[in-house]
Amino acid sequence: MVLADAGCEVTLWGRRPDIAAAINTTRTNPQYSSEITLPPAVTATTDPARAAAGAELVFLAVPSQSLRANLADWAPLLRPDAVLVSLMKGVELGTAKRMSEVIEEVAKVDRDRVAVLTGPNLAAEIAARQPAAAVVACRDEAAARRIQTACHTAYYRPYTNTDVIGCELGGAVKNVIALAVGIAGGMGLGDNTKASLITRGLAETTRLGLAMGADPYTFAGLAGMGDLVATCSSPLSRNNTFGHNLGRGMSLAETIAATSQTAEGVKSCESVADLARRHGVDMPITETVVDIVHNGKPPVVAVKELMSRSAKPER
Ligand SMILES: NC(=O)c1ccc[n+]([C@@H]2O[C@H](COP(=O)([O-])OP(=O)(O)OC[C@H]3O[C@@H](n4cnc5c(N)ncnc54)[C@H](O)[C@@H]3O)[C@@H](O)[C@H]2O)c1
Ligand SMILES: O=P(O)(O)OC[C@H](O)CO
Predict the structure, then answer these.
(1) Measured in angstroms, how far is the CA atom of residue 315 from the centroid of ligand 1?
(2) pLDDT tens, position by position, 182-212
(3) How does strand 156-161 pair with strand 132-138?
């Protein structure tokens, strides 16, 4: 919708023939965001060759853990000069790779042709065409500007940035922090607790970013603070809601059953913790989220442990 509103011809690939047919005939997706009428410039197909044919810009928006397998099928179909844009906010399990790294590796493209679009962009609000800003990150500034133009509308304001690592980490780690904030909210804890988690969450994100070569200023921008605030304060966030359900006592199985879309932080908390260990960075909130979500640690115990860590200077 954003790309079409900005003047692009868009071909949307999806797995399910019934949904693709519904989009083409009714201009709506009956499963997600059925209240939106898609612009006429959007058509849908289940044929990846048709979606890729001639596409100068390819926006990738499948759940992060499925990117490698999906892209392996699509890569041979892409135009050799296509620019690939990741909308995904996760880190691959096992390899601890960022999505742009997976794209470079699987599609065998130079990193100047891989970009990331991120920022405080809760889908339902974008779909309602409410004003929002975003960041297009690419090592090649000219490519970032092309993408910026391709998605700039009256309600969507993208900025460019060359710090791909920082922008990607901001997007992936905020999902983990949103789980922590959601858990706190579900436990009945208030705004001091949430603000402390958000701020210390940003501190551990920045520490990891510095260790990986990111620009620390990125974390004060839309990809860092901006997305963290949106995700940690909104009931529209899947990660925040997932955490809230855990915090109010639902089991992991019940919480997964109640979640219809991807909450990236659930898997990426493990890969972010892995990345932190590989870089020798301390990420106590991320480790706590792993313990609660995957190791069955009761949230009350986890809070006590976090609060009894040794006292230290703020930075
Ligand atoms: N929804 C948002 O508000 C939002 C905003 C910004 C970024 N993102 C990021 O975009 C990415 C996708 O999120 P989403 O909200 O669209 O998630 P989603 O769960 O709605 O999945 C996206 C699409 O991928 C399809 N899909 C699921 N598993 C698949 C698989 N194995 N292979 C192929 N297709 C599959 C789904 O049917 C759906 O159409 C995530 O990394 C998320 O963090 C989401
Ligand atoms: O619904 P979430 O938690 O995946 O967050 C959506 C977007 O990433 C917010 O920018």
Answers:
(1) 36
(2) 999 999 999 999 999 999 999 999 999 999 9
(3) parallel
Cβ pair 186, 246 in contact under 8 A: yes
Q: Which residues are catalytic?
A: 174
Binding-site residues for NAD(+): 123, 238
Chain-centroid distance of CA 38 in Å reads: 23
Q: Measure the CA dihedral 79/53/5/218, to 10°.
A: -30
In the CATH scheme, what is the code of domain 54-315? 1.10.1040.10
62, 122, 229: which to mutate for ligand 2, most atoms within 8 A of CB? 122
Ligand 2: residues with CB < 6 A are 89, 120-122, 175, 178, 227, 230-231, 237-240, 264
* ipTM of model: 0.98
Residue labelled with tokens 């693709």: 20
Domain extent listing, the chain: 54-315
* 23's tokens: 């989009």
CA of 309 to the centre of ligand 2 (A): 30
- Closest ligand to the CA of 259: 1
Closest ligand 2 atom to 264 CA: 4
Euclidean distance between CA atoms 7 and 199, whole angstroms: 38
Inter-residue contact 271 to 93 (CB < 8 Å):
yes
Give residue-wise pLDDT tens across range 246-266: 999 999 999 999 998 999 999
* pTM summary value: 0.97
CA–CA distance, 19 with 32 (Å, rounded to integer): 10
**CA 61 to centroid of ligand 1, rounded, Å:** 6
